[in-house]
Amino acid sequence: MNEVALPEWGRDVRRVAVLTGAGISTDSGVPDYRGPDGVWTRDPALADAFRYDRFMADPEVRARFWRTYLGHAAWRAEPNAGHHALAELDRAGLAVRILTQNVDGLHQMTGIAPRKVLELHGSMRSVVCTGCRARTPTSETLTRVAAGDPDPACPACGGILKLAVVLFGQHLDQDTFAQAEKIAEASQLLLAVGSSLQVEPVASLCRVAVRAGARLVIVNRDPTPYDAMAVEVVREPISTALPRITAALGAARTG
């Protein structure tokens, strides 16, 4: 595929759904989870802190979780070429909707309208009380952690505070996922970018899109369970491949 050469699967595409995973943010310095240098690859025991039942039951687990996010790379990260490529595709006039497994908020930092980004696994930029459900900026909780409170309680009701992300053992928000399914069904092209496609039900959006007639293109370093459904699988680095793909789609739209 040349710089603006459009493959057959990109012809006459006006509606694009993009399913993004941790791989799209690694070039921004945000580590993924399962890759060679992933968070859980380097420290398998840390995965325990991402289990809802363990998080809720053990103050030590919660303390370890908060320490992990205290110095998280995402707080210093900026969008990379892959994120910006999707924003440029939106500005080219295509109907773009981003369905992201990421919680880092980097898509929105490109200037794309927040309504066009569906955060399937929540956001690390908010904290929710598991008791009274009050939401506060994460910075407030992390300030307390840094000051020596390892497991801050809700200042309103004393309940357990949790990052506003979906942990293992939690269900996705039903309304959010139903909206994602509708977007996948309405798309002509679904780009799955930087996701292992091993976490369900989000990965099943690939099947939803294909069954509704969309073309599936996967951009990922490693094989995924959905590769056989794809019209093309791209193994190049995301920050190289995605700008080329979106430039071709955008040029076809404006040409």
Automatic annotation (TrEMBL):
Pfam families: SIR2
Class in the EC hierarchy, top level: transferase
Residues at the catalytic site: 121 (proton acceptor)
Alphabetized UniProt keyword annotations: Hydrolase, Metal-binding, NAD, Transferase, Zinc
Binding annotation for Zn(2+): 129, 132, 154, 157
EC number(s) on file: 2.3.1.286
GO MF, one annotated term: histone deacetylase activity, NAD-dependent
SUPFAM superfamilies in the record: DHS-like NAD/FAD-binding domain
Matching PROSITE patterns: SIRTUIN (PS50305)
PANTHER family per UniProt: NAD-DEPENDENT PROTEIN DEACYLASE (PTHR11085:SF4), NAD-DEPENDENT PROTEIN DEACYLASE SIRTUIN-5, MITOCHONDRIAL-RELATED (PTHR11085)
Designated name of the protein: protein acetyllysine N-acetyltransferase
Species this protein is from: Plantactinospora soyae
Classification lineage: Bacteria, Bacillati, Actinomycetota, Actinomycetes, Micromonosporales
